[in-house]
Amino acid sequence: MMIRIGSLLTIIILLIACRSNEQGQDEKMVEQTVSVKAVVKDTIRESYLSKDYLMGKFDPATHKSFSKIDAEFTKKDAIYMRTDAYEAFKEMAKSAEEVGITFNIISATRPFYYQKGIWERKWTGVTKVSGKDLTKSHPGFKQRALKILEYSSMPGTSRHHWGTDIDLNNLENDYFESGKGLKEYEWLQANARSFGFCQVYSEKGAERPYGYNLEKWHWSYLPVASKLTNFAQTQMNNKDIKGFDGDNTTDSIDVINKYILGINPNCN
Ligand SMILES: [Zn+2]
User: How far is Cα 97 from Cα 93, in angstroms, rounded to an integer?
Assistant: First the structure.
């Protein structure tokens, strides 16, 4: 019996020792978790300055810096933009509403793999471009890429990858040239900048010789987007833009300078 009580005491003492050791570890874990969280938070703040982010190689639906756009602002089921850009957009929309203008976001973040799908269907002739199978009409890779670039972004070069850029109200320039559309466009031209937004695909010409065509509907949130264009200019080269059919054309086309950086010079 004595032995049994002795063993029982030993077990109890051991259990208490284990418990207090666990508690100590728990405290340490809490401390570590807090410091890891602080580091993660810091990293997230600037985590968009990476090649993968710039090329849209992430999922906006699960990314911590992104928010789903409310039904009030879009007819789409599940489209996302960066939370900082979205907050600025909501302020802008509130201000526009005071003069009877409403915004409908037609498109926001489009990941790399989405764009790769569009691009490769055109590249392989599955989707016709101007009624043509490009594998036959444009057998040369560079010419084929340039043809697709007239209508679609090359994967990795679209500002829609960034969560900062949105298409508003209508995808035809004509719409913004009269009546309701003109009123909306004039309001945006006068006011969007004060909320951080700029029309990056302005008229092409002497001021903007290269890049995607005129898009009066496409507005970019510069406080974040400018850092990304600067990152592309200083940290990337054309060969980084890869992972799709025809990616061996990026150097000869000079996609970084001509397309990523080929924007309205007033949007810096
Ligand atoms: Zn757009």
Answer: 6
Give the distance (Å) from ligand 1 centre to CA of residue 167.
5
C-alpha of residue 107 to centroid of ligand 1, in Å: 7
Q: Please tell me the predicted confidence (pLDDT) of residue 268.
A: 83
* CATH topology classification for 51-260: Muramoyl-pentapeptide Carboxypeptidase; domain 2 (3.30.1380)
Evaluate whether 55 touches 156 at the Cβ level (below 8 Å): yes
Quote the CA–CA distance of 52 and 10 in Å, as a whole number.
57
Q: What is the DSSP string of 142-156?
A: HHHHHHHHTTSPPTT
- Which residues of the chain are modeled with pLDDT < 50? 1-3, 9, 12-18, 20, 42-44
> Where do the structural domains in the chain lie, given as residue ranges?
1-46, 51-260
Question: What is the chain's length?
Answer: 268
Q: What is the pLDDT of residues 160-176, one digit of tens each?
A: 999 999 999 999 999 99
